[in-house]
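>> received
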Amino acid sequence: DFNANTIAANKLERGWEYVLSGSAAFTIGSLVNGQAELQGAVSGSGGAYAYADLGAGTVGCQDAARDPEFYCRWAMQTEAGFERTYIGLCNGWSFGIPVTLPAGFYFDHVPGSNIQAIASDGVTSTPKDTGINPVLGTFYRFRIIVSGGGLVARFYINGSLVSTIDATMPAGGTVLQPGARHDRTTGAPATGTSRVDYIFGWDTRTP
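>> returned
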């Protein structure tokens, strides 16, 4: 939860950071206490992204083989038709546009479509349709539970199981950073925004 409502040199609180490309934007606390807002771009016509994660290193990060769990409360606030959002556990959130997803577990959303659950080994991804098309301005609770030493990932939205994936799983030992990312892919200068209320994760197995 971003309750400190402060930003200093791209650092938030308790190790969290935000990273921008192009003319992307990030705000925190100016709308609702404890919420961060990500905007893929505010000008120009190319791709740009904004993301928040735990930063470099392994402190506070997860390992696929240690059966991580991930939690987030997220809302798609506004859309202009060129957005894409990713929420979950990722081996490096600064990937390019268009996307080859790094190893990790994700919820993925583009305007006008259902949220996808994805597991990626860094080369190949397995997406599954959750059947949920988010309502603008409505917060959703995301949860990912990995079990079997990294063999199965279960994806939940608002407490209900929406997808189970047991293919293209990240290799054991892969550092996974909890985070959220908002892209403006291409198109007109206008872009939408997404909001994050809280993000956290932990490993449920010891090394």
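>> The mean pLDDT is 78.
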